[in-house]
């Protein structure tokens, strides 16, 4: 075959590829344009002709959110306020009152006032319910009432709040609030450094480096990096934090997508500060995203012993896309993979159960991978620690108690009825635990077990087939047994619940810093990490 003929064949092949790829693109483009035209005409006719007055903005928000709801929970439409809030969170500073707040029963509840910031100086406490901001009643405000707490630096605002049934007022001056990525670090004992990394904002790696260097100057020869409860943040900061302990040129994570340009690999780019110091990493079920990238890389490269409970399992990567009028689409663009090749995403959003919930990957579907030293690790459900501790894992009953804010509300009542001289002075007894159980009963606490859900479906099926009368008595007996078992489950998880109660109560008196100081002497995960780090043979055995 001569060279000219070969060249002509190459040109024809290229033209065919371009032709078919253009056809595919045009087909997709036509379908998108068609659907947009249908939606636009429907939206116009609805607003012009509906029997009652409509709110176009609310209708559009509903339509957008309903469309995104069918994807994953991390793909969001952000209005202008939410875009600004995301920038604040990543920047690590903002202007406000200096407190974590939550919306409960049309009231803004103070979750945690930050020590020495405006809310704390004005006397606000966790559990206070803000009912008016200036002249605006929170319950009557249809937008995000929390936005009213923000304002220009040094601006003053009057707050009316409910504390334990008593209405109070205070005036505070808004100020610059710094959100620390590393809220606490300390040398424990003679030579173990303890660093809490609470989020991956833009300051995360710089603050971690500073803490690490100071601890080494103080004599730290071992490090505990606490990622428990860290929800993640910036991918770039996760790479930089891993780079503190991992040499230059090592793969930390890779991303894979249906869009070619999002297929990327991320390596360490600088010389490690210390690639040899013994390292333990603490994780739990609330360690997610960037936390899992760091923990997964350190585990895959056999650089640290991971201790605690299986992490959350968020293996999806999002990127903000600017839209018009200052809004954004935060869209999932890819999945990330640890150096060994595992994706730790725990939920399959493309496959859902009858109630529309994403299906969790089952253990039978996990795939095996190998760390650098040949240790077995698995994908499909978060980062599984090298050392699992029951104290790190929350049972279903404990999760239900947390979700209904029972721990938080009991701690609020406890604070106003008890004196506490120091964190170490807190020693919750069986009497206190019984008091908490009475508190649960008084708030009508209840949760539905998986067995109850199945029984409910059985009851519906029996009614359809006409068997409901025949099984009614059996159903009541089973239900009674389940209720007894649920009460026993609370007793069985006494230590777990008391630990959470202690944490929340200590924060009320001594802030987060007091809680961390209590942790370093009393927390079982930290004690276990110290034990492993102080036993080189055990440490090396785990990693080899």
Automatic annotation (TrEMBL):
Protein's recorded name: Carboxyl-terminal processing protease
Molecular function via GO: endopeptidase activity; serine-type peptidase activity
GO annotations of cellular component type: outer membrane-bounded periplasmic space
NCBIfam families hit by this protein: prc (TIGR00225)
Keyword Hydrolase: yes
Family (UniProt): Belongs to the peptidase S41A family.
SMART domains according to UniProt: PDZ, TSPc
Keywords associated with the record: Hydrolase, Protease, Serine protease
GO biological process per UniProt: proteolysis; signal transduction
PDZ domain location: 82-165
Superkingdom field: Bacteria
